Amino acid sequence: MAAPIAGPAAAAPDAAGFKNVLLLVQLRWLAIAGQCATILVTRYAFGIILPMAAMLGVVAALILLNTVGMLWLRGARPVDNAKLLVALLLDILCLAVQLYLSGGATNPFVSLFLLQVVLGSVLLERWSIWVVVIFTSAAFGLLTIAYRPIALPQGYGVTLFQLHVGGTWVCFVLVAVLLVLFVTRINGNLRERDAHLVAMQRRADEEDHIVRIGLLASGAAHELGTPLSSLSVILGDWRRAPHIVADPELVQELTEMQAEVQRCKSIVTGILLAAGEARGEASAASTVRAFFGRVVADWRIARSFSGLAYRDGFGADVPIASDTVLQQVVYNLLDNAADASPDAIIVDLARSGDLLTITVADSGPGFAPAMLEGIGTPYNSTKSRRGAGLGLFLVANVMRKLGGNVSARNRPEGGAEVVLCFPLETLALTEQLDGG
């Protein structure tokens, strides 16, 4: 008869553990079906007398145990090693009772105890595995001296030895199939877990890289603050000098220089604000359309870029808190697009349900295939200058923090397209202002 398979367990600390436990519950249902089929075939097809009530009672107990296990899993309750060990021991006890009622150690299905040992060695802690070994060995030993013999009817055409040989073959096939199913699925779950751990390690390395970049940027911002303030004062003094006031061309150049210095100071302030070090400036109340319209307009003026087309398809406006980090993300995308396509950039603002999407398209040469595969990884760029490729890396990480994503493709008509997509709730006004 088929062996009861290892007991239920709650979700493990990771997805692989939960899948393994769920697989055990599924295997137990197969074992229950196998036991029912074996008992009925032995009794009614072979005509061998068995204590049907007692054996079907054990099957009913297994059904109850597995049902409780399924409810436990559905409730997402944790099952530790001790609980899993108890479930395995109950499975072994049920198997021992079934064997006691059907020939004990002379029953060829007694080798199914080994299947319990294999399952325990995969799922349990080391000390628990030895408990399973001792329990199964003791059960086997007791079944050699205490059991209910199988009595063949008078004039039965097959000897007990022939039945034993046939049962041994059936048991071998059953164990082989169950082990292949179980071990294959377990290995798949473990590979998924390992891949997840590798991804988590890579993400941790990337975040550590971002922290180091942030520290360098913050330090540079502090260092640049003083000379930028000095330049602003000097340019202001020069603008009041009589010989400069009398020269319109010099006045125009000084005005442009002051605008560039002011832009540098704004960038430095934004870096310090993002690092939590700027004072007297916090997130301000705005709306989606006003915020992104202002960001695009400011960039167009700062870059003197006349080929930018901005299409606002967002629909009904939504109040948000302005986010300097998100503003810098858009600036990075526009800077990259302008470098690749000096003549034309298209920016689309749209909404899809509760998601906000920003699409930046250009008419440049597009992304190389290797770049598309590595979007969001550091230093993934076709630019030859040192440090290039951090723009999209930072963009991808900001999107991840916002619960969104960044995607890129080459447009059929030529050029590249980068799409930002993230939930609107991440810019919720109350949350941002409270946090600020």
Q: What order do the helices and strands come in, and which of them pair?
A:
Blueprint: H1 15-45, H2 52-74, H3 81-100, H4 113-123, H5 126-143, H6 160-239, H7 242-245, H8 248-274, E1 285-287, H9 288-303, E2 308-313, E3 319-321, H10 324-340, E4 345-352, E5 355-362, H11 369-373, H12 390-401, E6 405-410, E7 416-423, H13 429-435
Parallel strand pairs: 2-4
Antiparallel strand pairs: 1-3, 4-5, 5-7, 6-7
Task: Describe the protein's architecture and organization.
This protein has helices at residues 15-45, 52-74, 81-100, 113-123, 126-143, 160-239, 242-245, 248-274, 288-303, 324-340, 369-373, 390-401, 429-435; strands spanning 285-287, 308-313, 319-321, 345-352, 355-362, 405-410, 416-423. The protein is of the alpha+beta class and 436 residues long. It folds into 3 domains: 15-157, no CATH class; 203-274; 285-435, 2-Layer Sandwich (Heat Shock Protein 90). It has a 5-stranded mixed β-sheet with strand order 2-4-5-7-6, covered by helices on one side. A two-stranded antiparallel sheet has the order 1-3. A hairpin with a 5-residue loop joins strand 6 (405-410) and strand 7 (416-423). The longest helix is centred in the middle third of the chain and has 80 residues, at 160-239.
